Amino acid sequence: MASVAVIGAGFSGLSAAAYLAYEGHEVSVFEKHTTAGGRARQMAVPEGYVFDMGPSWYWMPDVFDRFFADFGSSTADHYRLTLLDPGFEVVFEKESTLLVPDEFDRLKALFEGIEPGSALRLDRFMQGAQYKYETAMQHLIYSPGLSLREFLRAGVLRGAWSLQLLTSLRRHVRKYFRDPRLVSLMEFPVLFLGGSADQIPALYSLMNYAGLRLGTWYPRGGFGKVVSAVAAVGEAAGARFFYNSPIERISVSGSLADGVVVNGTFYPFDAVVAAADYHHVEDRLLPPQFRNYTADYWKSRTMAPSCLIYYLGIRKRLRRLSHHTLFFDGDMDGHTRDIYADPKWPDNPQFYVGCPSKTDPSVAPPGHENLFLLLPLAPDLEDSEVMREHYFQIMLARLEAHTGEAIKPFIDYRKSFGLSDFTREYNAYRGNAYGLANTLRQTAIWKPSMRNSNLSNLFYAGQLTVPGPGVAAALISGKIAAAQVMKHFKRTRYEGAL
User: What pTM did the predictor assign?
Assistant: First the structure.
């Protein structure tokens, strides 16, 4: 039995801790905040609202099911899920909207009504997307991405043509659909991957299958319930959690990480899983000679967006608003250029509004609404209250126009969270919110490695390594990292493996 330190209690750290503790290792999780969750923390305020501070889309339910099944339970044992119908709404120009139904036959009818012949094409598109999803789950997503041999053994490279690794998602989508609304609907899921459709491989049409076939769900009580459930699994297995415990440095002895320093105190460990921001771990917690990557390497990476978030409490109910609403009533390509090609605050911003109180009365006082506004932004922008207020007024005006009623006079709680907050709260490199963009050159083996090349018992997990951004991906990342730790101890005569 080995002693393992896990740095960070976000989803990847919680997952790694659960798997390691379940295998009998002594696991200590160190978290700088007062609660678990990382970017998925919840915020309860005196006005009676409970806000999910980060993730709000529950996709890929099979990943969550698989996680809990690994520990002999089920998702239903921990929290209650609601399948949203509509899954989400998309607002386009000239007050055109699409309500995306949960049933695929109704979705096909919706497509056919917009573009004759598209129902059949959607069927074919989804067949390919399902193949990619199932292949990726079997051979790619749960792989550590340490060597090409992983994919040669699985035959993935031989199937590269059918997985469309070398075709962009944009080109792939536009082979099937022409109407700009359908194109936008099919391209938007890559926002969860932190990239633009012309940079992301068509492999990631698997996200269309995840969102449009597997459904958009909501965990009652919000994502905080999921955080609590994953943490409880780890605690039941024996993992210990230490909050208000920021790591000051990783201690090194020879070619091993021999412990961590927390609030001035050294704690010895046999291995370390760094589930905090990868760049922060290397740049701030390790001596230069033990880092995997240089400053120039990190500067060369294509980062996923950051974002500006507003948490709003509204003291009335809003009639014309869905649980999830995407405002694509402007120039989406222009906003994408303002993130990647010419980084700046967007000229014509596209944004997202979540209203979980539509589904869950527990997150707002009776007769009130809980709103979450998110504006994707380029990382590294100058973040000021003046800019935040400017874009808040833009989003609010468009939200009021869409709902057809006044909202501003009824705001009784308001808080913003932007680039500087991501840096301060999560040590996020360049203030990013979603890690690295999942371009081909930053997928699988081309992501930052899960293993430290200089310290054989230091491992990484989270959105800056495999498999990538997102809650489901973070759960998987923690599982893979735990497997690597146990593989290391198997070589050093410790027992236990996934």
Answer: 0.96
